[in-house]
Amino acid sequence: MVLSREDLRFVRELFSRYYGLAPIRLPRDLSSREFAFQVLDTDSYIRHLSFTSESELKAYLVINTPKQSYYSTAKYSNPAVSDYSEAGWQGSELMFDIDADKLPGCRTQVLAEKVEVVTTECIEIAKNALKRLLYILEEHIGFGEDEIMVYFSGNRGFHVVITSSDPEWLTLGSLHRLELVDYVTARGLDLRRIFRGTVKRGFRASPPTPRDGGWRSLIASFFDGEVSDKAIGSIAIAVDPLVTQDISRLIRIPNSLNGKTGLIASLIKIDDVSKFKFDESLTPFEGYAIIKPRASLNGVFLGKKVTLSENVVSKVDVSTALYLVLNGLANVIRYSLTSIRKVKEYYHQL
Questions:
Q1: How confident is the model at residue 100 (pLDDT cuts 50, 70, 90)?
Q2: Alpha carbon distance 336, 289 (integer Å)
Q3: Predicted pLDDT of residue 38
Q4: List of domains in the chain
Q5: Can you give the chain as a three-state secondary structure string?
């Protein structure tokens, strides 16, 4: 999507001013990571970049204002080499992706033709799935809280990254990473194997308990009632298998802006997952904009009702204007950015 000159200036100013102030989070070994950026007004990407310091990377963000900003979960001895066979792979962090619109019970709203927005209810469903995933990662697989990074994607869900420096995890192959996906998604799970021998010669075995381990433990911890495939589906977490198995995956820079929404990819403390809200706190921008909608719009964005008529000039808050411009739904006539909210400075040890 090509932005008009006015819209491009609007987005660039907001993004540049944000990156001049934002506490973006980078790994301590950033010099071993590949960085990639999507150009603001095109669909093209710039890849195989490397940086030696956080200040160098922040300067790039302020000056170039990319639409999307990523670094690799993989660590390389030569991250700027375009041929991965020559990059010197040293291992990759483990990543899980939860998208709210892929979860049972989520009903997205259509803001305009071909533009769907997740609802607060969908994000709550994703939060519950996130809690179950974190429980499995800590209680069943054994990761410590300081090894788990959690953040909102800035759009439809949550990312979980295992930042452990243990080489046994870092060098895990794609097939073994898929086995972890099988476990958390219950793919291939056979209830008959879990409850084999529960009824034998007139004796009934004890019901599952949290101490049993495996899926018997999960059933006891998250479900109360007659166990069925439907019950298993309510416990399993629908993570994207392609994300987890990919050892060269790009990860959105924590606390960067999502170029589809203009929202912050906000880091979240594990203890604060329940407190996370899909609301205005996810946008750093305060102010207003005069826009001309390119379509009639009727829906809710960040808890605010959005009702606009095609080609009817309207005044909206600047965060709504940014979202509409990024999705090709409106053009900016003029705007006033009054302030940039301070981003919560939660620093996960990366």
A1: very high
A2: 6
A3: 97
A4: 5-77+91-181+239-340 (3.90.920.10), 190-235 (no CATH)
A5: CCCCHHHHHHHHHHHHHHHHHCCCCCCCCHHHCCEEEECCCCCCEEEEECCCCHHHHHHHHHHHCCCEEEEECEEECCCCCCCHHHCCEEEECEEEEEEHHHCCCCCCEEEECCEEECCHHHHHHHHHHHHHHHHHHHHHCCCCHHHEEEEECCCCEEEEEECCCCHHHHCCCHHHHHHHHHHHHCCCCCHHHHCCCCEECCEECCCCCCCCCHHHHHHHHHCCCCCCHHHHHHHCCCECHHHHHCCCCEEECCCCECCCCCCECCEECHHHHHHCCCCHHHCCEEEEEEEEECCCEEEEECCEEEEECCCCCEEEEHHHHHHHHHCCCEEEEEEEEEEECCCCCCCCCC
Q: Residue 224's CB: how many other CB atoms inside 10 A? A: 8
- What residues have CB less than 8 Å from 168, skipping those under 6 apart? none
Cα gap 152→264, rounded to integer Å:
8
- 156 vs 31: CA distance, rounded Å: 30
> How far apart, in whole angstroms, are the C-alpha atoms of residue 319 and residue 302?
10
Using the structure block, give the residue that is written with the tokens 């259509």: 110
Predicted confidence (pLDDT) per residue in 260-315, tens digit: 999 999 999 999 999 999 999 999 999 999 999 999 998 888 888 899 999 999 99
d(CA 320, CA 332): 11
Yes or no: say if 187 and 181 are a contact pair by the CB < 8 Å rule. yes
Q: At what angle do helices 5-21 and 54-64 cross, to 10 degrees?
A: 160
How far, CA to CA in Å, does 237 sit from each of 99, 132, 133? Answer: 10, 7, 7
Write out the catalytic residue numbers.
97, 99, 240
Residues 6+ apart with CB under 8 A from 31: 50, 51, 52, 79
